[in-house]
Amino acid sequence: xxxxxxxxxxxxxxxxxxxxxxxxxxxxxxxxxxxxxxxxxxxxxxxxxxxxxxxxxxxxxxxxxxxxxxxxxxxxxxxxxxxxxxxxxxxxxxxxxxxxxxxxxxxxxxxxxxxxxxxxxxxxxxxxxx
Length: 130
What we know:
Elements (H helix, E strand, L loop, with lengths): L8 E2 L4 E7 L3 H14 L3 E5 L3 E6 L2 H12 L6 E10 L2 E10 L5 E2 H19 L7
Antiparallel strand pairs: 1-7, 2-6, 3-4, 4-5, 5-6
């Protein structure tokens, strides 16, 4: 049974940004790790081709609610995949909500903007990328 208010909540879609850089895969990894740390990320996975960083706090968001805890406290992961092709490095950034409980439309939009900005901040560390 659905009520009128149900459509106020929505699942937060992941944000994906892909780009190619001339920066070596090793150097790209270092740049990305530095960017994630400066954003306040907790590095969960750090391998040659994969980086996962966690942001926010599910506990804080659930206890205080997003209104009090702030949109930035919403738990999310930034997943970065690196691939070497010829003399270039392919970078795939995916920012995904890990709270899993969806959010009110207004907060979902704000969180999606934060997620997109996080991915763009990482991309902006590479001077040769538009």
